[in-house]
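Students often ask why we bother encoding 3D structure as a string. The short answer is that it lets us treat folding as translation between two languages. Here is a chain of 380 residues written in the first language.
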Amino acid sequence: MKALQIGMHWFPERAGGLDRVYHSLAQSLPGAGVDVRGLIAGGEQASNDTAGKIHSFARADDSLLSRVWASRGALGDELRNHRPDIVAAHFALYVVGGLDLLKGFPLVMHFHGPWADESGVEKASGMNTVIKRRVEKAVYHRADKLIVLSRAFRDVLTNMYDVDPAKIAIVPGCVDVPHFDISKSRREARESLNLPLDRPIVFAVRRLVRRMGLEELIDAVALLKRRWPDVVLVIAGRGPLTAELQARAAAAGLTESVRLLGYVSDEMLPELYRAADISVVPTVALEGFGLITIESLSAGTPVLVTPVGGLPEVVTQLSENLILPNTGSEAIADRLGEFFAGTIKLPNAEECHAYALKNFDLPVIARKTADVYQQVIDVR
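And here it is in the second language, the structure alphabet:
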């Protein structure tokens, strides 16, 4: 089977959930019998990493119209010169300009979240949001099948975009589980990262934007310190809220208890997960899956999630205790306090890793994805 995968960026160049999934599938689908070619916006690394099979059609910082026009040209070239059996796209914007070119080609859309609504949460202009919604609807209604990461996002597609539920398949996200299963102990990881050896450490890795709930997580640490004064919160990631989060921590007297690391490489992440006693995903809106939950479990570190979007679906079969009763600082502080006091049972390292390996490792999800592609080709 030959598949043309249209992405957003190449993950090593830009960090994001969509880019991680795209990169992971590009790596793992060949093992499931899928010959992958691909298009993204970015630099030369994708082409270098894949011997030219995945290449960029424009720079990521080119104007929107330039990128849309370039994506159309690149799509046309791929369809003429390589004749894929199926086109699988992960970002509506880079498909909409070439919808007319896809006549006769089956199209699968990987839905990673409501692009328009995410912009709205981050205070984009109303017109900006309206245009994005129209772009999304045009592409999703043309698709033969849509793959979502969770039941929560299936409901978003049906309720917000009027997509027929029969056209939707649920295939969860994936990570390279063995990559996060490092040989270092928690103490050794802390020594390597220059983190305290004898203090409880809470870890979060998120883009520093409003919907991620990091303000509530910092407030939760302020509450937690009343009983656990040595607790340390380590946050990895960058974004527009960096200065605001630093100021929030300082105002709460947490300068020595909250560490914002900024961007962290994929190579460093396994050590950070291993160094932590527990991870937290404090999202307050629009979370379709949360790959970081699987990353943490892969490293053997339990992860608490808010009851938002698809997060509960990821961990519920492992332990209901990993799901917070609601969003907000009090819920986070209470559950962390129970964990540190030993009054609530959470999965141990072996259970966490085994669960991730069985359900979310690259070969497992690549096979499920390839099966959906084949079903679409067979129907066509």
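Translate back mentally: DSSP finds 17 helices and twelve strands in the chain. Keep this in mind for the problem set.
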